[in-house]
Structures
1.
Amino acid sequence: MSISCSFCFYFSGDTQVVTQISYLQCLSDQFRIVTHAYACIVHAHMIIESQELPPIGTNAYALLEPSLKQCVIIDAPAEAYEWAVQVAEKYSCQIIALILTHGHWDHILDGHKFAKAGILTYGHADDIEMFASPSKMASYAIPGLELKELPINHWIKGGDQLELLATKMEIRHVPGHCPGNVLVYVPCEKAAIVGDVIFAGSVGRYDLPGGDFSVLEKSIKTQVYSLPDETTIYPGHGPVTSVGRERAGNPYVKG
Ligand SMILES: [Zn+2]
Ligand SMILES: [Zn+2]
C-alpha cells in the first residue's frame, strides 16, 4: 500500500505507523507539524544543526564552522531566518550564504529575509521561475501565504565545487522531484543535504509541475547511490538516513 501526503513526499506501506501519524498530521487543519529539533550532530570540525519548520515541516540546516566564525544555511522554510540568526549567535558565527536545494515554496518562504540582510543566495537556474515568481506555485501551496520573490546571487549546477567554510562542497544536480533540485555533498563530513529527492524510506513527489519519476529514479541511482554508503543523508523532510540504508531498503528506488 502506498499513500501520498499533499506535500513533498510519499510514504510506503512498510512504515505503516509513521504513515498513519503523518497522514493524520497532513489532514489536520493546523497544517503545522509539531516543531522539533533533531539531534545536533557534531562532526570532527563542522557542526550541523537542523530544525523542522512551518508551515508543513520542512527541514532547514545550518552548517557551522566556529573556528572561522562562519555559518551556511541550507533551505529557508517559514521562520528559518529567525532560527538561523539564533543558531549563528549561539556559535558566534556570521551567516555567509543561503543555499536553496530547490525552488518549491516550502523551502524558500523565508529566503527574501536572508537576501534583504545581504546574505548571498545560491540556487539552480532550472528553478528560476519558482525563485522569481513564487506566486505561480500558489495552486499547490497553503492558501493565504505570502510568496515573495527570492533574488539568487549565484547560479549553481551539477559538478560545481564550492569552497565555503574552508571546506569543499560538491553540488550534484538531482532533478525529478522538480527540475532544479540539487544536493550539497560535503565529503569530509560524510554528509549530503539533498532537498526532496529522497527521504528515509521514501522519495520525493514526482507529480508536481516539472516532476518525473524516471528522471527522479535516475537522479537517485546515479547521484545519490553513487555516494559512499556511510554518507549521512539530510533530507528536506523527516529524519536523517544514510546512503547505505536507502540503497539497501528504499522501496521506491532499488540500489
Ligand atoms: Zn519540500
Ligand atoms: Zn519540494
Note: The chain has one domain: 2-249.
2.
Amino acid sequence: MTQTVRGVVSKKRGEPVQLVDVVVPDPGPGEVIVEISGCGVCHTDLTYRDGGISAAYPFLLGHEAAGVVESVGTGVTAVEPGDFVVLNWRAVCGQCRACRRGRPQYCFDTHNAAQAMTLTDGTELTPALGIGAFIDKTLVHQGQCTKVDPAADPAAVALLGCGVMAGLGASINTGAVNRDDTVAVIGCGGVGDAAIAGARLVGARKIIAVDTDDAKLDWATDFGATHTVNARRGNVVEAIRDLTDGFGADVVIDAVGRPETWTQAFYARDLGGTVVLVGVPTPDVRIDMPLVDFFSRGGALKSSWYGDCLPERDFPTMVMLYLQGRLPLDRFVSERIGLEDIENAFAKMHSGRVLRSVVVLK
Ligand SMILES: NC(=O)c1ccc[n+]([C@@H]2O[C@H](COP(=O)([O-])OP(=O)(O)OC[C@H]3O[C@@H](n4cnc5c(N)ncnc54)[C@H](O)[C@@H]3O)[C@@H](O)[C@H]2O)c1
Ligand SMILES: [Zn+2]
Ligand SMILES: [Zn+2]
C-alpha cells in the first residue's frame, strides 16, 4: 500500500522548487510515517536546490520539522501513532566505532528510512538530510523521531531539528560555555541567536553579539546579548577585547563560516580560549596565519556539527525549557507559510528580515 501526498521537490540544479504529488509507501520494519505539523526553511534546503550538497536530484526538501506519528512499521518500539515528535538527522547506530567509544555525536552510520518516497512515475526522491519534510507526511526511521511534550507549538520546536539546535549546542555542548564565562558570537542569524540563547541559559557573564546588520543586533539583544558590535563599524577583535578587560572572550563562536570571521574569532579569544566554528564554510575557503600564533595562544579550535547534539538527550530538555519560558524558541519563527511559499522564503533569507520562515500544515 502507498499514499499520495503533496511535497516540495527540487528537480534540477538552480531551478525553482515544485509542489508535486509524492508517493509515500507504508512503513516497513523500523520505519514511521509522520504527519508534518511544522517545518522550518533552512539555508541547507537552498544549498540542495543549487547543487551544493550532492547531484542526487530530485530532492525532497525540508528537514527541520515536528509532527505527529501516523503509523509505524514492524519492530518499532520508540514511538506509537499519536506521539508528537521532532525529527532529527542524527539517529545514532550504537554500533560504529564512534558510538562504541562513547562519542555518538560523531556516529558514522546514522539511520534513515530504508524505503524511498517517489514521484508518481516511480522516480526515487533523495530526502534532504535523510528527512524530507516539506510534505504532508514523510517516511523516516524510528530513531529520527524524538518524542517531546505535545503542549509545545510545532512551528517553534520544529526548529530544534536543525539550525536552532546547532546554535544552542555550539554554546552548550561544543563550546561548553559555563556560568561566569565571557562569550562572543559572530553572525546573528538563527544559528548565532540560538548560540546566544544557549550562552544565556547556562549563565555566561557577558555575551557579545557581532553582526554587520543593526537590526540583527537588536534581535540578538532580545535573545540575551549583553553587548553588541557592528562589524562594519570598527575592528571586531579590538571591540571584543575592549569589552573583556583587554583579554578576549573565553569562547568565541563563528556562526558565519568565512575566513575573515574565523580569523576574528581566533584572535578575539582569551589565551587558552575556545573557538567554535558552527557556520559552514564553502569548499574554496582557506585560512593563512602564522602557526606560532596557534601554538602560543593555546586553547581549543573546534567545529560543531548539529551542535554536537544527541536528539534523545537534548530535544526533550530544550522543549521543557521552552515551555517553562526559559528558552524563547517562538522568537525564531519570523513568519508562518504554506508549502507553496518555499521559493519566496528562499528569497527572504537574503533580505536579512527573517530568522526562520516556517511551513505550517493543518
Ligand atoms: N554546523 C551545523 O550543524 C549547522 C546547522 C545549520 C546551519 N549551519 C550554518 O550556520 C550558518 C548560519 O546560519 P543562519 O541560518 O544563522 O544564517 P543567516 O544567513 O540567517 O545568518 C548569518 C548572519 O551572519 C551575518 N554576517 C554575514 N557576514 C558577516 C560578517 N562578516 N561579520 C558578522 N556577521 C556577518 C549576517 O548579517 C546574518 O545575520 C550557515 O553557514 C549555516 O549553513 C550550521
Ligand atoms: Zn554509530
Ligand atoms: Zn538545516
Note: The chain has a mean pLDDT of 97.
